[in-house]
Amino acid sequence: MAARSITAEVPTAPRMSDDPAQLVPELADVSAALFRAAGNGSVPRPTISLVQLRAGQIVGSTYLTVLHTGFLRKAGEPEERITSVASWQDSPYFTAAERAALALTEAVLQPPADGERVPDDLYAQAAELYEPKALATLMFVIGQVNFFIPIALIAKPVPGRAFNAPWK
């Protein structure tokens, strides 16, 4: 696959002109269920947004990184936390539980060349920091953002537009 020239204009319209949610309205119930599961209150909202931002960074989606950066800013998260998500491993701005959530996100989205994606020791560390329901919810949060990654990468909604109107 050929890379885009660094001097090429980046399109300001979505690649897919029709909103996928309008084309396949049956997915609305699935999407709503994922949002309810992720937002059940067992995982702090900032942790969810940090996971979603990191996932967007890992997969290289400007739409997702702009979206989740905006959510974190609106929630009042300090710029230091937002801007250091990409380098969380050596950032002093995250709790142990947030670090575990970010590590799990990376393990799922960046498989190693050999070995398990989520090794037992990483799971054990996360399990020490999260109650069972919260750990299950964190798995669903990572799954939720993974549900939307193909839309972000294939359909390419326009970054910076309203969350509910990226095709307008």
In brief:
This protein has helices at residues 20-23, 27-38, 45-59, 62-74, 79-83, 96-109, 120-129, 132-155.
Detailed description of the structure:
- This protein is mainly alpha-helical.
- It is built from 8 helices and no strands.
- The model has no long low-confidence stretch (mean pLDDT 91).
Helix content: 55-70%
Query: How large is the count of helical segments?
Result: 8
**Portion in strands:** under 5%
Rounded to the nearest angstrom, the distance between the terminal CA atoms is: 29 Å
* Total number of beta strands: 0
- pLDDT < 50 stretches: none
> Main beta sheet, described?
none
Please tag this protein with its features.
mainly alpha, 8 helices
Which helices and strands, and how do they pair?
Elements: H1 20-23, H2 27-38, H3 45-59, H4 62-74, H5 79-83, H6 96-109, H7 120-129, H8 132-155
Helix pairs in contact: 2-8, 3-4, 3-6, 3-8, 6-7
